């Protein structure tokens, strides 16, 4: 059964810019001229296995006065895929730094990140505190702390994974992609899923639909998460920070007892200027589940 497809209220613009040797894709809304006389530009960073246009629903729920830019991370969406077999987290910081230097030289911006993108944003805001006016963290919890004794097994797993080609599932149609999206997140409405499917995947010459993501993203990173380094960056953040989480998010489903809620609370207490909000009737994909409620919180905070 076919469903109506979501129609964006604010028409996005697509552009490509060079970033550290890669052809980076940007989705943007609003005129860059508004950043000269109105509020500062807002940069939105998507999470793992997501794309920049995923923010369309919340952008549509916001006002029209702000210039918003969202990049596809390297190896995601329409951004060029580097010739690598492993993705290194510091590269996201390097890409963001170069992108801001190109688009907004010398400007302070507002920065929003979701999940992996929020983890990048939190580190960057402590590394380049003079560049960020306000920061929004959508469920960027960080990761379980790496222990030195875990290193041999972690490296061994990485080496084993390098020996096996990674693949992503292919789909027979955009409707099948939409069904998969709704299976992962039942709160995603059919019209939004139908629209988002065409942003997450593209039809190939063989008629099959492929996700716009490099399969190499599935490989484990051999470098252990260093909590104390992350916290040093978090403590250096000078911007006001808004933390927003979904009421139904349960981090134990991701990490079990390796990273508890109590440990996260201890970590987030290191952020100097923090405001917290919780959105009802949504989980990890806040920008899909409650775009209107999220937009209300963003506009209040960023104004």
Give structural notes.
This protein has 303 residues and is an alpha/beta fold. Helices cover 36% and strands 19% of the residues. It is built from twelve helices and eleven strands. The protein has helices at residues 34-37, 56-61, 89-103, 116-127, 151-162, 174-184, 190-200, 227-235, 252-255, 261-268, 286-289, 291-302, and strands at residues 13-19, 22-29, 42-45, 68-71, 109-114, 132-138, 170-171, 201-203, 209-211, 240-246, 274-279. The strands form two sheets. The protein has an eight-stranded mixed beta sheet, sandwiched between helices. Strand 3, helix 2 and strand 4 (68-71) form a beta-alpha-beta unit. Helix 3 crosses helix 4 (116-127), helix 4 (116-127) crosses helix 8 (227-235) and helix 6 crosses helix 7. The radius of gyration is 19 Å and the shape is globular.
Helices, strands, pairings?
Layout: E1 13-19, E2 22-29, H1 34-37, E3 42-45, H2 56-61, E4 68-71, H3 89-103, E5 109-114, H4 116-127, E6 132-138, H5 151-162, E7 170-171, H6 174-184, H7 190-200, E8 201-203, E9 209-211, H8 227-235, E10 240-246, H9 252-255, H10 261-268, E11 274-279, H11 286-289, H12 291-302
Parallel strand pairs: 3-4, 3-5, 5-6, 6-10, 10-11
Antiparallel strand pairs: 1-2, 2-4, 7-9, 8-9
Helix pairs in contact: 3-4, 4-8, 6-7
Instruction: Encode the helix/strand succession as letters.
Output: EEHEHEHEHEHEHHEEHEHHEHH
Low-confidence stretches: none
Q: Provide the residue-averaged pLDDT.
A: 96
Give the terminus-to-terminus CA distance. Answer: 43 Å
Secondary-structure-based class equals: alpha/beta
Oligomer: single chain
**Which percent range describes the beta-strand content?**
15-25%
Can you give the helix content as a percent range? 25-40%
Give the overall silhouette: globular
Number of strands: 11
Total number of helices: 12
Strand order of the largest sheet: 1-2-4-3-5-6-10-11
Rg value: 19 Å
Biggest beta-sheet profile? 8 strands, mixed
């Amino acid at each position: 059964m076919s469903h109506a497809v979501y129609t964006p209220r604010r028409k996005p613009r697509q552009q490509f810019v060079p970033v550290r040797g890669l052809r980076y894709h940007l989705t943007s809304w609003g005129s860059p001229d508004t950043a000269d006389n109105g509020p500062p530009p807002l940069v939105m960073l998507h999470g793992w296995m997501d794309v920049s246009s995923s923010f369309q629903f919340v952008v549509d729920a916001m006002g029209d006065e702000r210039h918003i830019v969202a990049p596809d991370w390297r190896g995601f969406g329409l951004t060029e895929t580097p010739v690598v077999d492993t993705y290194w987290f510091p590269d996201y910081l390097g890409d963001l730094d170069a992108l801001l230097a190109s688009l907004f030289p010398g400007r302070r911006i507002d920065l929003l990140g979701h999940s992996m993108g929020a983890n990048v944003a939190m580190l960057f805001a402590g590394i380049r505190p003079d560049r960020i006016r306000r920061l929004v963290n959508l469920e960027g919890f960080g990761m379980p702390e790496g222990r030195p004794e875990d290193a041999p097994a972690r490296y061994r797993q990485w080496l084993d994974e390098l020996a096996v080609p990674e693949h992503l599932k292919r789909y027979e149609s955009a409707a099948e992609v939409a069904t998969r999206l709704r299976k992962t997140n039942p709160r995603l409405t059919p019209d939004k899923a139908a629209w988002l499917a065409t942003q997450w995947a593209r039809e190939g010459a063989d008629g099959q639909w492929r996700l716009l993501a490099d399969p190499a993203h599935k490989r484990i990173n051999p470098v252990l998460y260093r909590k104390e380094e992350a916290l040093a960056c978090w403590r250096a953040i000078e911007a006001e920070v808004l933390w927003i989480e979904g009421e139904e998010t349960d981090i134990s489903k991701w990490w079990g007892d390796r990273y508890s809620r109590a440990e996260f609370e201890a970590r987030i207490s290191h952020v100097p200027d923090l405001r917290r909000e919780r959105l009802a009737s949504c989980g990890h994909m806040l920008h899909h589940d409650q775009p209107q409620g999220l937009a209300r919180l963003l506009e209040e905070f960023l104004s």
